[in-house]
Amino acid sequence: MATETGSGKTLEALYREDRTFPPSREFMSKANVRDPKIYERAKKDLEGFWAEQAKTLHWFEPFQKVLEWKPPYAKWFLGGQLNISYNCLDRHVKAGKGAKVAYFWEGEPGDTRTVTYEQLLSETQKAANALKELGVRKGDRVAIYMPMIPELPVAMLACARIGAPFTVVFGGFSAEALAGRITDSEAKVLITADGGYRKGNVVPLKKNSDDAVAQSKTIQKVLVVKRTKQEVPWTKGRDIWWDELVGVQKADCPAESLDSEHMLYLLYTSGTTAKPKGIVHTTAGYLAGVATTHSMIFDIKDDDVYWCAADIGWVTGHSYIVFAPLANGTTGVMYEGVPDYPDKDRWWAIIEKYKVSILYCAPTAIRTFMKWGAEYPQKHDMKTLRLLGSVGEPINPEAWLWYQEFIGGGRCPIVDTWWMTETGMILITPLPGITTLKPGSATFPFPGVEADVVDDDGKSVPLGGAGYLVITKPWPAMLRGIYKDEQRYRDTYWSRFPGRYFAGDGAKRDQDGYFWLLGRVDDVMKVSGHRISTTEVESSLVSHPTVAEAAVIGREDPITGQSIFAFVTLRGGNNGDESLSKELREHVVTKIGSIARPKTIMFTPELPKTRSGKIMRRLLRDIANGQALGDTTTLADATVVESIRTASASGKDD
Ligand code: PRX
Prior knowledge:
With about 650 residues, the chain is α/β, with parallel strands linked by helices.
């Protein structure tokens, strides 16, 4: 089969990696999960397996039924009542662990804070009372647009405590992107900060927030944490300093008893249209799913210092910086800034300083570190590391091996974890005490997760073959829908292969049954692990007055996985130049955010189209990737390709 991946490669074209790494005897003997029978057990009794996990949580009312599966909707732990913030905080403090560190926090300029479970509980209760004072009630939505500071998890936990679903918007998104998310979620309150530090500069979060609130109709109050302390615009009556409101509250706000299926949060992610999807996650199944995977996959022990280096604005941060580690009572590290400030060894200095034992990050970061050179990690003592993780995009075997050798000192297992915003929790992953690793493979579905690789007709592809990844059984942290868009939920995930969850990824299984993820098969790009829709970038380009048409392609990139390559046709047959190219790139930044800035813009007099008028993306992908052109026989005007090929591309790395 020659199914095409998002990057234009055929699935068969991906090469094999033969080296294998069994777990060391030492690691195996102490691992949280040692018995491979766990897979069989979970397969035989999926509901029993998850019920056992869920029972380790604190319930105000026990659940009566484990699962109700009415495709495509699942409900988990029906009849149960609990609270996530109680599970993440009160329960540990009550058990005498209040003095344990929840987060070692480090700001980019070098300031630090140590937050214990007791302090986190106290701050969360105060923040919850503050939200109540602002009129937030159970079910009301709250938008959060913050830098990576401890008040961010506090804000999320405070919302969870009173049953107000929140939506965190990554601090790198523009005002316009924030406005769209506020409008869709109809958020009543926005929690933000004056600014955040990034690469030595201040990100103007309050200014962006003001612009966003001006474009949306629902926000009544803006709660502002003081972080960078510069002058910020202020709207009296609407804006309130966090210190002044939260600081004066009582540290006593009992956690609401919430139904298992109560909405915990909405997280917007890019799909194949210009409008981001509000992914809905609920309470009990989500928490059981993330806490279990976190404990088993990262082999969490009481004395670990665990660092997930993602941003909380993405699902990785929601699940594996905030909810799972706190539910498991883990000590975590949280860092505000970029890896090369003030120098390229910042991460390794953090690992040395806090004696980090587990590091979880993205392949893009690893490839960047490879480019910078091993001398940076080698300056630091990182012997405390015992396990490494990877997430967000396929990791190439070279990067895997470099990570293993230069960061893990050759002794740490690497868990390459496949999952999505929609899945809530990790679904395909090694278990480090059991699985023999193959560099570049995410290995096997987690116990209780059933995955398959199917062809265009939905038939399972035999071992050795490639196709589309599907998940065939419900799992507890799965999305419960797309906010206010049931049809899109059905169409996107459940109609391609009825009854099965269509992930949108290509995958291959080798002869040993290992899963190899091959990238997106739809019009979604993965740039530095960030998910960006080609259509979203196209529609922001065509909103510029000079642009008639645009087609955006993910071009292969050795560091960022993919980079954004835009073909642009101007109005009135005009030619573009370097200055317009720059203007268009900044235009996209204003519309979406800097993560979506096209790396390359190619002005072309026309775009290649089929006779029915569809843009031939495959051809454009070939051109962008400098590959030999595929079949052009369906092209309406064959000369178009030649003119594109001779057009010059402009724009370069930032
Ligand atoms: O293409 C897959 C890729 O990231 C997509 C999901 O993106 P997002 O919702 O932003 O969540 C990223 C973090 C969980 C998937 O469809 N992806 C994620 N992890 C891996 C991966 N691709 C290959 N290997 C992985 N480990």
